[in-house]
Specification:
The protein is an all-alpha fold and 442 residues long. The protein is built from 16 helices and no strands.
């Protein structure tokens, strides 16, 4: 029986490839249009601000993982901060769910781009069907082992980043490098809450950096390399996203971007390079989304396995063979498939943003309240991170609540259900004296 974790199996380059792999996965293909819808001509700036917010967010993860580089990063950080409490399990589940939501976002994006190549009016049936098919395929590859995922991630990260940059250069070249030429004439009548809501969505394009902390133990020299690989990943992503934003903005107006919001990159290639450009962009999008899904499925099943080991979530085999990580894979895939089948892209993205920002605030608060001396964290950075997160979350709920209250209600009730479930589970479990480890604050 070989262990599921392999210590020191990821080099710095492989770790950065994995981080950028998850980040550039759907982020840019699905979110460019969604972000432009709220930020208007300012959407490249929303990606810049989102990178800054993510940089502050990454700080908590980096300082804690420098001292405790254990696999399952987020669950461990929460456990160190709050002990085996309801909030630990609930916040870790929120993170797992936001990753699962991200998987359904990626899968739907894959399907939406694929259908650009096929002239069909059956999109409503085909998008969820293809999305679910892709999620199942990712599951099958995940079962076949860790090494394959690393190799696929590395190869696809190179193709993806290279392909996206070629797309950006071609689009800008077609527009004579007149940056955002189409956007300059746009009315910039967007409010600050609109812009902050756009930034909240853009943050989803960066949150892949948490995949790196989830793989803490598997990174070579983690004390040094986890922080480095997170910073490098964020910088690479920012460069790619800005290039894409300017490219899309130089060939399409905001109205055109919003009209094609689920596949705006393919549409942006059309004026620049014609139908061949669309095909090229779609192929890059398919590679990016498929590989992003692979890496994310792996990370989330690891995290759920970790929570099960920490006795923070119950485990039922449902008569399935194999170890816990295999089972958590099955749960991940079933949940992601249900989401991909029943929600559209903007609703999926909205839930993801709300879950993720809330979980992020809980992590910073935990580090601030309980761990800041232990890991010698700078208080001002933690406070700025929390304030930025809270601003984005508040603005997003405010804007979304006025346009699509349904998804706010679904998100709020899901979060309430997660907390209630954890509380009930831990109470009953604790009553049985099953939580054996005491928690000490330093």
């Amino acid at each position: 029986m070989k262990p599921t974790y392999e210590k020191g199996s990821l080099s710095l380059i492989a770790t950065v490839a994995m981080g950028t792999g998850v980040m550039i996965g759907a982020g840019i293909f699905a979110l460019t249009g969604q972000v432009a819808e709220y930020a208007g001509p300012w959407f490249p700036l929303a990606f810049l601000l989102a990178a800054i917010v993510s940089g502050f967010s990454a700080y908590s993860y980096i300082v804690v993982s420098r001292k405790y580089p254990s696999a399952g990063g987020i669950a461990m950080i929460l456990h160190k901060a709050y002990g085996p409490a309801t909030i630990t399990g609930a916040a870790a589940l929120l993170m797992a769910f936001s990753m699962i939501i991200n998987e359904s976002l990626v899968a739907r994006t894959f399907a939406t781009y694929l259908l650009r190549l096929i002239d069909t009016d059956k999109g409503e049936i085909l998008v969820p069907t293809i999305a679910v098919g892709l999620i199942v395929a990712a599951f099958l590859v995940n079962i076949s082992g860790n090494k394959i995922i690393g190799r696929i991630s590395l190869a696809s990260a190179v193709i993806k980043v290279g392909g996206i940059l070629i797309f950006a250069l071609l689009a800008l070249w077609a527009a004579d490098f007149s940056f955002a030429s189409k956007l300059s004439g746009e009315p910039a009548n967007r409010s600050l809450p609109d812009f902050l809501a756009a930034t909240a969505l853009a943050i989803l394009a960066y949150k892949g950096f948490t995949t790196i902390t989830n793989s803490g133990d598997e990174v070579k020299e983690p004390k040094k390399n986890v922080g480095r690989s997170i910073v490098l990943s964020l910088l690479i992503c920012l460069a790619v996203y800005l290039a894409v934003s300017f490219a899309v903005g130089s060939t399409l107006s905001v109205a055109e971007i919003v009209k094609a919001k689920d596949y705006s990159l393919a549409e942006a290639a059309r004026p620049a390079i014609g139908d061949d450009g669309v095909v090229f962009t779609v192929i890059i999008a398919l590679i990016a989304t498929a590989s992003g899904l692979l890496a994310s499925t792996f990370a989330v099943s690891r995290m759920l396995a970790m929570l099960t080991d920490m006795k923070l979530i119950p485990h039922s085999h449902f008569g399935m063979p194999g170890g816990i990580q295999k089972h958590t894979l099955v749960y991940t895939v079933v949940l992601a498939s249900l989401l991909a089948a029943f929600f559209d892209l903007s609703r999926i993205a909205s839930m993801g943003a709300i879950f993720y920002l809330l979980m992020d605030i809980i992590i910073h608060w935990g580090v601030f309240r309980h761990l800041r001396r232990d890991v010698s964290a700078a208080i001002w950075v933690l406070i700025v991170a929390m304030v930025l997160d809270a601003l984005m979350l508040g603005a997003f709920i405010f804007i979304k609540g006025s346009t699509d209250p349904f998804i706010i209600i679904v998100s709020a009730s899901s979060i309430a259900a997660v907390f209630a479930f954890e509380r009930f589970y831990l109470r009953n479990l604790r009553g049985a004296g099953d939580v054996g480890h005491e928690h000490h604050h330093h």
